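Entry: Mobilization protein
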Amino acid sequence: MANLQGYGTNSVGNMLNHYTRHAGDPEQTKYRYANQDIDQTRTHLNYAIFARDDPAAFVQSKIDEVDVKPKGGDKATNVISDWVITLPKNPALIGREREFFKTAYNHMLKTVPEKLIVGAWVHMDENQPHMHFCFCPIVHTAVMTNDKSRPLLDAQGQVKRDKKGTPRYERVQVRDAAGKPVYRSSFGQTKVYTRARMKKFHPDLEKAMEGHFGFKVGIELEDKGEKLLSDLKQPDYIKAKETMSRQQSRIRALEAKEVETRGKLGALTDEVEKKRSQSADIDLEIGGKTGELDDLQNEIEQKILDLAAAKAECEAVSQRLESLRQREREVAGDVAELRPIAAEIGRWEAADRAGKRAILDSIADGCSALRERIQGRVERLGKRIEEVGARVRALREKVMPSTRKLKRGLKEKQESLDEMMDWARKSAGSFGRESAPTRSRPQSR
């Protein structure tokens, strides 16, 4: 891309100092360039395709030559014009930078004659390599005057007048004594590069480069922002580019930060999803454990009910055992009644036959009723014992799945019951064995 800027007499020294990098003021006692983006380690790479021996004297000579002297102040006339032609960021131009700037210089000679060129300096020590094509925009314009023999007439045939009432005449070119047109020189950047020529500048330069390199190098700006920047003055353009460079660096840093943040966010999202999945599994497990706890609670409640029932059964069994003990005492009384009969049996050996018969008859009569009563009691006791044993076994099976403590308690109670049952069985057996022998009565002879 390229950018045109003009400078008045007050800026010539500063600009020449910038072009030559303080060549005319190496100690910078008069001029000081404030551009901090100049890399002094690369300043030695700068060069000039064309340069006057004394650029400042050359500009002053052109000021002295012109017929119309330049103005100063705020509306200063541009005595030098500066085309800044920047090397496009095209990989195909790497290593061919000097060739690019030389081609651009030759193209500029088609518009600006060499006699007006101050210099063409290439700077390689700034952000992007560029060339300052500096020249004095001098033009020669025809000297015009009013031909008072040819007044301007309106539609009614009356002489036209300006706002002050002064008659208006046709403008004609002044001629010298030999009849030749008279011209005068002046500085006029807008006349050298008119609006129409400015519109064609970039396309023409692009064609010149394509004709030399065989491809489009990228002179014409495709970016709207760059096109807007190209209309700025050179100092403003440099500041704008520097600001854009800083903003682009910041944007790249923010984009890198965004990529890093997105990566962290993705990892965090995956971790959250993982935790959610784990939480769902934990919820399911808790639900299962809650069901198990409910089942266990129901089982415990059922065991408590079974334990209460077992206690009730134990109370009933205890009552029955107490009844058995009562029966046992009754049987003991019957045994006491049998002791006299046993004494009669002791006299058996000493008695004679008639006495033995009398003893037998006495024993038989005394034991007959007792034996029947005891036999009935024993039978009833045996049935009750079997009934108690059946209930105890059923109770044992029912209470068996209970807790260890309940099992131990029931085991102790069961052992006690078993001992009582054994004692009852033995007592019943002893009663049967202690009953007196009987014999059938002898038949009468």
